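Cross-check.
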Amino acid sequence: MTIRILILGLACTILALPSLAQQNPRGLALPSSAKIRDKFTPCPPGDVKLTGGFLGTRIAANEKNRMLTVDEDDMLDCFERREVRHQDWQGEHVGKFLHAAVLSWQNSGDADLKVKIDRVAARLLKTQEPDGYLGTYMPDHRWTSWDVWVHKYDLIGLLTYYQYTHDLPESDPSHDLSEEALAACRKIGDLLAATFGTGPGQRDINKSGEHMGMAPDSVLEPVVLLYRATKEPRYLAFARYIIANYDAPGGPAILTSLEKYGSVRRVANAKAYEMTSNFNGMLELYRVTGDKRLLDDMLVAWNDIVKNRLYPTGSASSHELYQEDFHLPNGNRANICETCVTVTWEQMNLELLRLTGLPQFAEEIERLAYNHLLAAQKPTGDDWVYYTPLEGRKQYDKVTTCCHSSGPRGVALLPEAAVMISDDGGVVVNLYNSGTMTVMPKPGKVTLDEETAYPLQGTVKFTVTPERDGARFPLRLRIPAWCPEAALQINGQPVKEAPVSGTYATVNRRWKRGDTVTLELKLPTRLTLGDHENEGKAAVLYGPLVLALDTALNPDIRNLNQVELAEDDSTKLRLNSAEDRANSGEAVFATDGRLFGSSNTTPLYLTPFATAGQDGKSRFAIWIARPGKAALPAAGSLFEGAETITSRQGNQSGEINDGDADSFRVTFSNQLAEEDWFGLVKDVPVEINRVVYIHGKSFHDGGWFDVSGGKPRIQVQTEKDGDWKTVGTIEDYPATTAVNNARLRDGQRFEVKFAAVKAVAIRVIGKPSSGDNPAQAFSSCAELQAFLDK
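Predicted model, tokenized:
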């Protein structure tokens, strides 16, 4: 599909004026409000319209099925009824919505979304107190917990609203509201600057929120943006206070820790989302002040994350923390790659790309965009996952969480990353997707038409139509570092100098209407060999895409750990399109593999990680055993694949017979029960003498067995629908009670041995626990396995 790309002039007019060259984001920052001039300047979101393809489809779904459907009352109730108990950080959602929704509206021009944005902004502004307070707490709880954090997102949302509405005609409903938004931001800034500091009666901002002050300190980013919008010295002074106060007693010591250890793991409590939010604020402050320490330390952090803490899919964190070097667990239980971390990491790379113009930062944006960001988003755009495992299931839910609000911001930012203007007045293309792009290089307006099926195919074609023939400007096209070979043609004629991987191919010429630029990128099939915790496994990549083995496409595979690749040499691995296997329009590839250590090859069907597990039920994995490394049948449970039965239907229904201890099942029904059990049933009996039970997960309100009346028991049926017979007791189960789990670990393994018996069914049975809610009780199970030891 070819789509018209208008490149408007207003964005690039700023390039002709040195003072305005510092203005970014456009329409917000005042001239001369920064000392550092960006190398690359994002185009306004309405000037880069990506349509179809991997990115354009998700951007449209994000707007239509998320931004337009977000529950306004859910976002605003905590402001309009502060006296009602609410989630501590619930106030963040409206600011995140305004940020993402305004960018989405600017990109699409959707009138209905604009009406919703105006309505939400107006309702929020009405709740501001006379002194400027725009939080969600009653007076006696102000500046505790997540209060400053909420004001951070108020500022981000309202400043974005002001940025794109204040120059609209007076007849537009948002014209006056826009000025109210900026006035409200000033009042917030004034209140923060008066409340926190080192003067008499002022508070220590580090002590006003969570994670050793990193949560409240992250207000730094919008405070700097507020300074750029107003040039009020007190806001810049407040930003400097935050940086200096990092080293106050009990503070996060972000800069000094990075300088001493060179590791984000050693910063404060290693909380990834809040820490990276501070990084983005420091990069904004560097742009304003030119303090090179800030940039240098952020590059230290960036290098450490990329080298030691980044997953192949472009995100980071486990249990919301930056973990030790190379500790990169993959499953659901490890709570990996919080979507909020993915988005703040995207923003950090966008900031560094703007400031430096270096392609490695665009490389990381591409990696996370095509993989972890889109993997967290449901393809229909209406839902997100909080954590996105590399193996396991995608656990979509309808609860509004921080990640449900952050994810749409990440998608809405993609057009700004895709096409930029260079400081020499040229056009920079970082991400390839058919669509409409609007830029203004130095000579004037230029229209581009881009046509591509990237990343499934490597051909990218641009038709360049300058408003005036003979206009001269450089066009930079990013050549991915993973691309071993690229070729460039102008009007069908090869360019002598071949593009180089990991750089920008630059064409600087006088352009005529109808000129064509064709970029051919070789899309290699690659293998990333696992190490450390992934030793003996490999991930298959195609171009920028990380592929996954998905049981929805491979229904005969029940245990992904018992599958192996036929080759672990990239030069020998064959990857073919298998579109006929697609369930929901996803891309599907076939390669050879083996099952259960067999010598015979069988097709393995892979799909991009971004679409794997999209039904929320199937299991998937990006790491596949290398030849000879798969788990063999002898190591598997004799009840693997058997039918699961339980005493009650719960709200978590993971498999308990698939060899995956990260998935689990619970019996939670909000009701009491005297006994709970989890069982497996086969069609024919098998001889067994050992059963393994793996505990699922302990919650605040139960999830374990209460042994105050006896330990959990293992029972069998020797014939279908026969009586249950106890064959053993889990004697080493801890001394739990209804309310105390006795430090039982999630995923803890227990084993019971007994005299051999032929069984058609097995189960674990015990009394469920209630935790802090005695009105109900439930238990959980991750795995139930049976073996015959000779």
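The mean pLDDT is 93. DSSP finds 18 helices and 32 strands in the chain. Passed to J.P. for a second look.
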